[in-house]
Structure formats: C-alpha cells, structure tokens
C-alpha cells in the first residue's frame, strides 16, 4: 500500500479496511432490500438487518485466519451481530458479486476526489496561462533555442491536455462505476436480474450488461491506463519546470519557503524537488498499467490471479494520483516566474532565432527556397562557431542587402511577429477569461 507520505486523508479513508468492509456491508444490505421488494425477505427481517448488522475489522481478520477466505470471514462476522435473520446475508450471491460491486462503489468515491482535483488544476492552469499570455520566452525544440513563444502558450498546451485527460477520465470512470449481482458464473441462476438493477440503482452504479463471475477487467485496465495518462501529463508539465529551473536557464523556480533546505551539503541549493517528486511517482503509476493489462486474462469464468494485484494497484494508483494532482496544483499556483530572464534568453544565440524569418523574406523577393537557405545557413554556422551577431553578418552581405532593406530586417528580427496569433490560439483552446476558484 502507498506509504503515508503520499496519502491524503480523504483518499486514504476511502481505501481503509473499515471503509472497504462498510462498502461490502452496504452492498449486502442493498441486496437484501432488493430481495425484500421482490417479496423474498420479510419486512421484519430486513428491518433487523438494517438496524443491527455490523462488524469489527479485527474480528473479521481473526475469522479470516480460520476460514482462509475474506468474504466468508466477513459474512460470518456480520452474522454474529444478527439473529435468525442472518440467513438472508449473502443470499443467492457469490463473493465477487459483493466485492466487485463494492469496488465500483469505492471507485466512485475515489473518482469524486480525482474529478475535483483535475478541475482545480485546470482552473489554476487557466489563471496562470492568462497571467503569462504575453510573457515572451524562447521556444525550444530538441532542447535547443528555436523561435519565440510565450509562457502563456506553454501553459495553454497544459490546459488543453488536462481537458483531454478529463474527457478520458469521465469515460473510464463510468466503466468501473459498475456493479454485477449475477451469481457464480454470471447466469443469474440463483438471483434474478431485478436484484442487480435495484442494487445498482441504490448505489448509483450501472449494471454491467454481461459478466462472468467477475466484472470484465478491461474496464479496470482502461481506468488504470487513463490514470497513468494523467500522471504522464503531470510528468510532462513537471519536466518543463525542472528544465526551466536549471541554473543555466532559471526562467522559473518552485517556491522556496523560509527555512527550507535544498541540500544537506550545499546551503545555496534550491532544487525543483516537487516536480521531481511528480516525475518519480508518475513512474510508479505507469508501472501499474502492465499489471492492469495482465489482469484481463482470467481462466474461464473466473480465477483470482487479479485479486491480489488489484488490492495494491487500485488503491495505490488513485491515492498517488490524488496526491500528485494536489501537489502539482500547489507547485503551479506558487511558481516563481522570471519574465526578465525569459526576455534576456531570447538573445543568447545572437539573433539566430530569427533565421527562418530572414529566409522567408528572401524567398518573398523571388529567390528559391534552396538559394535563400544557402545564403542564411552559412551565416548561422558562423554565429554558432564565432558568437558573432547574426544581423550584423546579414547587413554585411551584399546578397542580403540588395534584397532586404533595414526596415525588412527590423521586421524579421521583431519577436512580436511570432506572437500575433496568441489571442486566437487562446480562443481555440477555450481560455477566454480567468476562471475563479
């Protein structure tokens, strides 16, 4: 199970032993209510079950040492709190009817937290994107300076990605918010489909249209894969912060609190530990995808090879992602941004970032693309090797000055050309105003 360091109390409670068994009991009582509506269980017996059915986690664990079966241990423990009406506990159902439906019930609780986490982060990203919409910085491809962009546009890509994550999440969440009360091999031999319908309605789940003894595990694999995609998104965002905080760049910095220590040996260090934490935990979640995929292939109508794995990966994945979303939201909300350093870094390559604009202007005068490229590239190489000023080299070349005026070069070296579509891009992404938290 996830260590407490990476648990938030709200999510940890959902996956606690107490809440798990409470979910099992909720399912068992919902089954009895359905039987009652069908005339099988007397009102008096149902009333006693609803009032008196209870359990103690320690008693269940002690009973399991004898039964070697957790559901049998649970039902026998609950039965000890009842009189003759205990005969209706687990009536007509099999273990996985209860366990899988309870998983759907627990995952629904977890999904409410994750849904809130995602929306909160999306709101923070939108606010920061608006704040830095026009904050010019160098765009990088392959880690190398390319052309100007804005920090707001970088954040806008995060906003769009989180929206896709939300869409995928809603689909996958609905898949696992399912129930099945169909018996030992899914044939409803000992319990009518109406019970399943009523139970799922009470628990706000949807009945799976067909199951074996278990719910189809492709549902859970899709869910884990979706949470892993969200974790991968967070890792991508965190990696950008880690790069931009490097000493050679230092265009952003994670908030560094008074009294915080960056290194046990070097007092000057301020490290992007939050973003590195996100990166590490994303690796754990992505590793769970393989296990979830392996859980799909079960023997015939059911085996329990998936069970032990799911006891780990379902709580751990949801708990870790909940923690990551909360932590990254705080990282972004308190991020220190250095616009002056971003602007200064535009000049690190002595004007080379405007090479494409120069080439295109030469093409517009009638040169072929090949000829224009061959004029510009040698000068770019000279700048790389000798750290000369790119524009000065152009201004010293008659091939260039014969075709481009000083005004043409002023225009080619104006970073604002690259930012003229920013508002349009923001509209396409859907960030048109700053949402309020």
Automatic annotation (TrEMBL):
* Source domain of life: Bacteria
- InterPro entries (alphabetical): AdenyloSucc_lyase_C (IPR019468), Fumarase/histidase_N (IPR024083), Fumarate_lyase_CS (IPR020557), Fumarate_lyase_fam (IPR000362), Fumarate_lyase_N (IPR022761), L-Aspartase-like (IPR008948), Pur_lyase (IPR004769)
Keyword line: Lyase, Purine biosynthesis
One Gene Ontology BP term is: 'de novo' AMP biosynthetic process
Q: Name one GO molecular function term.
A: N6-(1,2-dicarboxyethyl)AMP AMP-lyase (fumarate-forming) activity
The reaction(s) annotated as catalysed by this protein in its Swiss-Prot or TrEMBL entry are: (2S)-2-[5-amino-1-(5-phospho-beta-D-ribosyl)imidazole-4-carboxamido]succinate = 5-amino-1-(5-phospho-beta-D-ribosyl)imidazole-4-carboxamide + fumarate; N(6)-(1,2-dicarboxyethyl)-AMP = fumarate + AMP
Which Pfam families has this protein been placed in? Answer: ADSL_C, Lyase_1
Q: What is its EC number?
A: 4.3.2.2
Q: Which residues form the Adenylosuccinate lyase C-terminal domain?
A: 350-430
- Pathway(s) annotated for this protein in UniProt: Purine metabolism; IMP biosynthesis via de novo pathway; 5-amino-1-(5-phospho-D-ribosyl)imidazole-4-carboxamide from 5-amino-1-(5-phospho-D-ribosyl)imidazole-4-carboxylate: step 2/2; Purine metabolism; AMP biosynthesis via de novo pathway; AMP from IMP: step 2/2
Q: Which GO terms describe its cellular component?
A: cytosol
Family the UniProt entry places it in? Belongs to the lyase 1 family. Adenylosuccinate lyase subfamily.
> What is the protein named?
Adenylosuccinate lyase
């Amino acid at each position: 199970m996830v260590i407490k360091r990476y648990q938030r109390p709200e999510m940890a409670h959902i996956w606690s032993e107490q809440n798990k068994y409470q979910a099992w009991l909720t399912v068992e009582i919902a089954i009895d209510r359905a039987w009652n509506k069908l005339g099988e269980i007397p009102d008096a017996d149902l009333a006693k079950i609803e009032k008196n059915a209870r359990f103690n986690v320690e008693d269940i664990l002690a009973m399991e040492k004898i039964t070697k079966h957790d559901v049998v241990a649970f039902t026998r423990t609950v039965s000890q709190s009842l009189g003759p009406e205990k005969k209706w506990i687990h009536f007509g159902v099999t273990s996985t009817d209860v366990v899988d439906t309870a998983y759907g019930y627990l995952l629904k609780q977890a999904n409410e937290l994750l849904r809130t986490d995602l929306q909160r982060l999306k709101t923070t990203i939108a606010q920061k994107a608006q704040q830095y919409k026009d904050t010019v910085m160098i765009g990088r491809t392959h880690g190398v300076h390319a052309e100007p962009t804005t920090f707001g546009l970088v954040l806008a890509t995060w906003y769009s990605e989180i929206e896709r994550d939300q869409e995928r999440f809603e689909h996958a969440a609905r898949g696992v918010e399912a129930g099945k009360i169909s018996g030992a091999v899914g044939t409803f031999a000992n319990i009518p489909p109406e019970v399943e319908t009523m139970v799922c309605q009470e628990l706000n789940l949807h009945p799976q249209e067909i199951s074996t003894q278990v719910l189809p595990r492709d549902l859970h694999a899709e869910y884990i894969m979706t949470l892993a995609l969200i974790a991968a998104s967070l890792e991508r965002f965190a990696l950008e912060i880690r790069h931009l905080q490097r000493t050679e760049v230092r265009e952003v910095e994670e908030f560094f609190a008074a009294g915080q220590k960056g290194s046990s040996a070097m007092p000057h260090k301020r490290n992007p530990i939050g973003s590195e934490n996100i990166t590490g935990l994303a690796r754990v979640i992505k590793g769970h995808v393989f296990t979830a995929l392996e859980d799909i292939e079960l023997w015939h109508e059911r085996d329990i090879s998936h069970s032990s794995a799911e006891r780990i990966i379902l709580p751990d994945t949801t708990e870790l992602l909940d923690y990551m979303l909360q932590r990254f939201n705080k990282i972004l909300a308190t991020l220190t941004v250095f616009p002056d350093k971003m602007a200064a870094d535009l000049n690190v390559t002595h004007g080379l970032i405007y090479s494409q604009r120069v080439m295109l202007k030469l093409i517009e005068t009638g040169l072929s693309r090949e000829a224009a490229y061959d004029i510009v590239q040698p000068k770019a190489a000279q700048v790389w090797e000798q750290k000369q000023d790119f524009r000065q080299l152009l201004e010293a070349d008659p091939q260039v000055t014969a075709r481009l005026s000083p005004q043409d070069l002023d225009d080619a070296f104006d970073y604002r050309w690259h930012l003229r579509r920013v508002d349009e891009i923001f509209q396409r992404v859907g960030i048109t105003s700053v949402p309020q938290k």
